[in-house]
Predict the 3D structure of the following.
Amino acid sequence: MLWWALLCASLQAQTARTVLEGVYTDAQAVRGQTAYQVNCSMCHRDEPLWPGVHAPPKGVVLDDPENIRRHARLIEINAVRSHAMPPGNITDMTPQERQILAAWIAAGAPAQ
């Protein structure tokens, strides 16, 4: 019986994969992109679409995956950990969306 428990534990350890290991589904990528588009993209672009915003906040343009990856640490600090972004949570970003955004960034902001 002990050998069976060890075998099962070993198989579970082999199959338990995470975003940090590069395991990320297309559906997760779509959710991450959606969270970004709904909560970040309207202001963090060359020509912001949000009324009253005339330039990207702090000059941070997040218009493509490379720029998103370059600013990943700032996004994590400001949108995931501190909730400073979006300002005043104007888009009503949920804690779940913040976690989806965090996972998407950790996976390298894959495009779908």
Observations:
- The radius of gyration is 18 Å.
- The chain is about 50% helix and 0% strand.
- The chain has one domain: 25-106.
